[in-house]
Amino acid sequence: MPHDTLPAATGGRVASDSEPHPGGRVASDSERIETPSPGLDTGPSGPTRPTEQSDSERIETPSPGLDTGPSGPTRPTEQLDTELRGLDRLQTTAERRTPWWRRAIDGVLPPVLLLVVLVAAWQAYTVIAQPRPDLAPGPLDVAAALGQAWEDGRLQLAVATSLERGILGFLIAVAVGTPLGLLLAEWAPLRRALGPLISGLQVLPSVAWVPAAILWFGLSDATVYFVVLMGAIPSIVNGLVAGVAQVPPQLRRVGTVLGASRLELAASVVLPAALPGYLAGLKQGWAFSWRSLMAAEIIAFGGSIGFGVGSLLQQGRDLADLASVLGTILVILAIGVVIELLVFAPVERGMLRRRGLTGGTP
Fold first, then answer.
1. Please, are residues 333 and 146 in contact by the beta-carbon 8 Å criterion?
2. Which of 278, 308, 298, 280 is nearest to 166 (CA)?
3. Most buried of the four, 204, 219, 314, 351, by CB within 10 Å?
C-alpha cells in the first residue's frame, strides 16, 4: 500500500538501496549513513578492529625485582650480574697465585715420600731375608759405597764431567735439530724424503753408534759427543715436525696477510704456535742424550775420555762391587729426576699457564 509520507526515523537501521531517499532518490554509497558498533574505530572504509592503545601509549607496570630499560623489563639484576661474572671467569686466569715454596713442596714432596717408602721396604727385605751382601746389598751398604766415592772425589768428578757433556751435547743437538725440523716441516718434498730416515734414526739404539764412533774418532770426547748428538737430534726434529703439523692454518694466513716472509712466518708464527710439540721433543731429546751419554761412557772407557758417571759404573762392575754399581745407578736416576723437576717441568707449566690451558693456579 502506498504511503503518503516517509517516517522521520528508520528505527536505528541502515537504509537499504531500495528504500527511497528523502527527496525522491536512492541514497548513494557516499551518502549512506551507518551506525557504528560500540568499541569499533570508524574510518573512511567503515568499521575496523577494536580500538587499541599504541605501543608508545601503552603503560606497563614492572614486576618487583626487575630492571626496566628502554626495551622493557629485563632479568633480575643480581642473577644477571652473577652470570656475567661466571662468563668472565671462563675467559680469565685466576689472579691468586700459589707461593713458590708451596709449588716446590707439591712438586718435590711426592717423589721424596715414594723414595722413602721404597728404601724402607728395601731395608726391611735385607733385615728379614738376610741375603748375601755381594748379591743384594742393603741401603746402608749402598750409602757407604757412595760415601767412599765422595771422599775419594770420584763421585764429584764423575757427576761434573757427565753433566758438562750432557748439557753441551744437548745444546748442540737443539741448535742442529731446530732449523732442521723447521725445514722438514715447511718443505714437504724434503719431509717426504728425509722423514722416514729421521724416524729410523730415532728408533735405532744410540749404543749401536759407539763402535763406529770409536773407529772414527778413537777414545776421545768426540766419540761421546757424536753418540749424544745421534741420540738427541732425531727426537728434537720429530717433535718439532709433529708440533708444526698441529698449528692452525689460520695463523699462517694471518702472518701472510700482515706481510711476513717465509722465514719470518716460520720463526715468528709457526715456531711459537708449535711450542707444545717442540717442548715434548726437547724433553725426549734430553732423555735420549742422557741415555746415549751413559752408553758411550760405559763402553768407551780410557784413552783421553774423561771420567764420567758411566765410567764410575763400569769401574764398579770391574771390581764386582754391587753396592757401588747400585749407588751409581741411583745417581744417574737422581740426575734425570732433578733435571726434569727443575728445568722442564717449570717451563712446561709456564707455557700452559700463558696459553690458558691450566684450570687453576700452577
1. no
2. 308
3. 314
Radius of gyration over alpha carbons of the chain, in Å?
A: 44
Q: Is the pLDDT of residue 200 over 80?
A: yes
Beta bridge partners of 21: 25
357 phi and psi, to 5 degrees? Answer: -100, 5
Mean pLDDT within 243-251: 84
The residues near 325 (Cβ < 8 Å, ≥ 6 apart) are: 313, 316, 317
Amino acid at 43: G
Judged by DSSP in three states, 65 sits in coil
Q: pLDDT band for 76, please (50, 70, 90 cuts).
A: low
Q: Judge: domain 162-304+335-354, CATH 1.10.3720.10.
A: yes
In this structure, which amino acid lies at residue 91?
Q
Q: What are the φ and ψ backbone dihedral angles of 55, each rounded to 5 degrees? A: -60, -35
Closest CA to 249 of 265, 231, 267: 265
- Structural domain spans, the chain: 162-304+335-354
